[in-house]
Amino acid sequence: MKYLRTFLLVAMAWMACSAFTMKSKEKPVYVFGIAASFNDTIVYYTEIQQLDSVYLDKDGFLPDRAVYSYQLKSHLEYTLGKTNYTCMIYFSENKGKLGKEADKLKNRYRKNEGMALQAVDPTVFTFKRPKD
Questions:
Q1: Do the beta carbons of residue 27 and residue 55 sit within 8 Å?
Q2: 86 is a domain residue
Q3: What is the DSSP letter of 108?
Q4: Cβ-proximal residues to 82 (8 Å cutoff; 6+ apart), any chain
Q5: Nearest-angstrom CA–CA distance, 105 and 20
Q6: What is the pLDDT of residue 10?
Q7: How many domains does the chain have?
Q8: Is residue 60 part of a domain?
Q9: How far is the C-alpha of 106 from the C-alpha of 125, rounded, in Å?
Q10: Is residue 42 part of a domain?
Q11: What gap in Å lies between CA 116 and CA 132, rounded to an integer?
């Protein structure tokens, strides 16, 4: 009985500590998008944005990540009239790392002389958390 009581006490303490450490691991998620088309020479990209109240899941993936791609695609189609664009998003908890990835992608498109980069105005378009 003494060992059972000690085991339960240790198990409860471990669960309480692990619950607090899980909360402290939540970091803000940063995201940027890029859209390219085979039919157009303009490549659109967004600035790096912080997503509001969004955290990566236990596997390190962004929940509902396809929705963010569709948000950018919808903006291009309905606001700018640009159809047939393939939209991709990149995300990370580290803004500096994501900035390096964004610069690397933009430099790749800049090297191609037939492509032109155009920023999507952040006052007109921002990624929004999907409604639950």
A1: yes
A2: yes
A3: H
A4: 35, 37, 40, 42, 44, 76
A5: 38
A6: 62
A7: 1
A8: yes
A9: 19
A10: yes
A11: 37
pLDDT of residue 7: 58
> Helix (H, G, I), strand (E, B), or coil: what is residue 85?
coil
Q: Which residue has the tokens 């695609």?
A: 73
**pLDDT confidence of residue 20:** 54
In a domain, 132, yes or no: no
> pLDDT digits over 10-69, tens only?
667 767 666 555 544 578 999 999 999 988 899 999 999 999 888 888 888 998 889 999
- The more confidently predicted of residues 4 and 24 is 4
Question: Is 33 within 8 Å of 127 (Cβ atoms)?
Answer: yes
Residue 50 lies in domain: 26-119
Give CA–CA dist 111/120, Å, rounded: 20
**Any idea how long the chain is?**
132
Q: Encoding tokens for residue 21?
A: 């450490």
